[in-house]
Write a structure and sequence with these properties.
Layout: H1 3-26, H2 36-56, H3 60-90, H4 95-121, H5 131-159, H6 167-194
Length: 197
């Protein structure tokens, strides 16, 4: 693993820790020693990257998946952070403005994702921003959103709770499966359609 990858991993781990800490405070979730999240995430992220780099020597996709996962975690927290900031600063939590806020937060996260994935995950070193590539990336992300929502809808509404699992827990199972499905779609789309070499 290159020194640059270690530094970027530490930075992303730090940002994830900061966003998680702020999220807990914003949602008024009190966890004893929650400030430790900021200190723990950078070394945990670095450890995960070291393991992925070792495995990635044999299987490049593992290395790229690890970086893509970290960028995705950062993007998710950025999306939630922007959304919550807009809601908090305006006092609006529903209606048309919520939809506008969600669209804004999605675009902020997608733009962040584009740059991190282009320059770090898939190492497109040319550094040139092209509208065509960005639009392809946003298209993949939009389809990923549809995959996410569609998968969740199928699991929750079509299949429905299984094995006596309560509805609230089943909805979270559906959301987890949907997140995994859209993660796979976004990775494949980014690797083979947007940032292909």
């Amino acid at each position: 693993m290159a020194k640059k990858d270690a530094i970027i991993g530490l930075i992303i781990g730090f940002l994830i820790g900061v966003f998680l800490f702020i999220g807990l405070k914003t949602l008024q979730i009190h966890v004893s020693g929650s400030w430790l999240i900021i200190l723990l995430f950078p070394p945990l992220t670095l450890l995960g990257l070291v393991v992925a780099a070792v495995i990635g020597k044999k299987f490049l996709a593992v290395w790229q998946l690890a970086k893509f996962f970290l960028v995705g975690a950062l993007n998710t927290l950025l999306d939630l952070g922007v959304l919550n900031f807009l809601m908090w600063s305006s006092g609006v939590y529903t209606g048309v403005f919520f939809v506008l806020f969600k669209g804004t937060s999605f675009l902020a996260a997608a733009t962040n994702s584009y740059f991190w994935n282009k320059h770090w995950t898939f190492e497109r070193r040319n550094g040139v921003f092209t509208e065509r590539e960005y639009v392809k990336f946003l298209t993949i992300a939009a389809v990923g959103l549809l995959v996410n929502v569609g998968t969740a809808g199928i699991v929750v509404d079509v299949i429905g709770p299984q094995f006596g699992v309560p509805e609230q827990l089943w909805a979270n199972v559906g959301a987890f499966i949907a997140a995994f499905a859209s993660f796979i779609w976004n990775f494949i789309g980014s690797k083979f359609m947007v940032f292909k070499k």
